[in-house]
Amino acid sequence: MILDILKVIVLGIVEGITEWLPVSSTGHLILVGDVLKPDLSDAFMEMFNVVIQLGAIMAVVVLYFHKLNPFSPKKSRKQKMLTWQMWIKVAIASVPAAIVGLLFNDYLDALFYKPLPVAVMLIVYGILFIIVENRNRHVQPRVTKISELTVQMLIWIGVFQMLALIPGTSRSGATIVGALMIGISRGVAAEFTFFLAIPVMFGASFLKILGFGLSFTGKEAVMLLLGCVVSFGVSIAAIKFLMGYIKQHDFKIFGYYRIILGAVIIVASIVQLILR
């Protein structure tokens, strides 16, 4: 039991760090979970790897509560209206992933919830980050505020978020790449990605819990709650780090990290096959 608690704490730390950095939290959880192998059922761990994100998303709610709250008495009427408009933008950008997720979630999990597909997507989006950042090196972003996002831009971002349903892609990575490609600043791309995660993660968690059922054992309930609490605390630090980092740096370092990690996974998979 104590060993499993330590393993779940490690998974919570991994989730809290990788959920907001564009390196694929689900991909890392799959890979780390394969190494740690907690004494919990495969069905529970599949659900755990998604629902643990609720802890991470609560970090966004806490850190940006004032900005997200359209009822704040500290806001003017215009500010409240802009907040409602932001939520409408989030809803529009969430549509593509919501439709595909509802229709094909189980199929995508069965097909791609494995180390090799994760490795391929890590490399593909790592290369994209480097290409897009090199292209944008001397280009001024067209959008520097969330209020400037158009419906066309929102749909484009939503399509990229939809692609992140494949493990290893990274939801934040995909949406940030898409946003950068259409001329949105790094700061707005990252912040809007945080807000976009709120309905997506709540929806994905609800579907996973529904699919798993509510018949948790006492141990499973404790592990799930522990993972969420740890991911919440670590996410606070990760979000603050990322927003500070992108004020001075681009995203290429994450691209290189993804490529290296993907290559390591592929080599490890080949070695494992040879040794069998």
- Rg computed from alpha carbons, rounded to a whole number of angstroms: 19 Å
Q: What average pLDDT do the residues reach?
A: 88
The main pleated sheet reads as: none
Look at the helices and sheets and give the structural class.
Answer: mainly alpha
Into which percentage range does the β-strand content fall?
A: under 5%
Residue stretches low in confidence (pLDDT < 50, at least 5 long) are none
> How many domain modules?
1
- Tell me the series of helices and strands, N- to C-terminal: HHHHHHHHHHHH
Question: How many individual helices?
Answer: 12
Query: Could you say which overall geometry the principal axes of the C-alpha atoms support?
Result: globular
Number of strands: 0
Instruction: Report the span from N to C terminus.
Output: 31 Å
Helix content: over 70%
Structure notes:
The chain is built from twelve helices and no strands. By secondary structure, the chain is mostly helical. It has one domain. Helix 1 packs parallel to helix 11 and helix 4 crosses helix 10. The longest helix is centred in the middle third of the chain and has 36 residues. The radius of gyration is 19 Å and the shape is globular. The two termini are 31 Å apart.
Quick take:
With 276 residues, the protein is mainly alpha-helical. It contains 12 helices and no strands.
